[in-house]
Design goal:
Length: 381
Amino acid sequence: MTIIKIHPKKFQSDDLQVAVSSLRKGGVIAYPTETVYGLGANIYQQKAVLRIFEIKGRDISKPVSIMIASDADVNDICMDIPDYSRTLMAKYWPGPLTLIFKASEELPEYIVSEDKKIGLRLPDHPITRKLMELHSEPMTSTSANISGEQAPIHAQEVANTFKERIDVIIDGGECEGKVPSTVLDASGNTPRILREGAISSSQIEQSLEGVKVMTSKTFNILFVCSGNSCRSPMAEGMLKSKLSSEFQENVAVKSAGTLGLDGNTATDFAVKVAKDFGADISEHRSHGITEELVKEADIIFAMAPEHKIFLQNHYPEFRENVFLLKSFARNPDEKFNDRIEDPIGGSLRVYQKCGEIIDSELERVLPRLKQLIQEKLGNES
């Protein structure tokens, strides 16, 4: 690992050549911003980007944002850019505002979210601005920390955390902001603040006078089975299709598996059966369960008792959020089979029976789920 000490107000372009060269060769660097230190890789270098997920311990399903050199880059990277977002760019860029847009179809899949969105950031730090200018291609923008831990404001914190796992650290001194950027979803007609950071929600609202701004309240639902290729993705897709539009914007539905399998598609029969129930899971890719997924979930539905036991044993502090789908909101005196059987390896009829059971259970729990959602979100939904 190479550490480059640079004064943010007294440096030359040549001082950054080692970092620029590392980025072009597929390296991972740390750099200062006006908020916290970040980790950077050329977004077109897949191995480098995936390496960032690995060293941060970040869930691969949660893509990182992109650092750009100019607001003109937005037109090349994004689609359907709303007028209100240009108002925000003019007001707060360069600065601590991350804007999420619909991603261009030309961007590599590994840098884009499952719903085809991408977050963009234009930094207001002299070192990083010059770095982006010299590099001439977008790079990743994610805090230089282990996921879930405090974001660093000193280069030495980054060095202590990652040691030789990154290639270059640009030590530009203490980051002045000490607060992460504000994140705003600009992919639709209504701006939605997903994370309030250095720029407050009231500042955003004042800047967009006459435009309604939604806040970040979200209710998170997680379905868990074994391999995340049959039961839980069917449940995820089917619940999404059942939620009315008033809930869809405020509810995040995900699924994962206890076997830790990542990147597998849903089985062909699962895709077909889900489609019969109005859900499209053809783009699904499996995810192993992670602490991050468990931590963010307001409620977790296990498909079978062994999944509930696994979750409560591995994440005891969240055990009260874990329920069997078939026992949730059910009369305790009622007799029932608490297991949704795994259809893997079975015939189409086996999958259809599984889908029918999941559909029936979702219809049964939906009224109680809506109550819980409304209790958390209040008037937001």
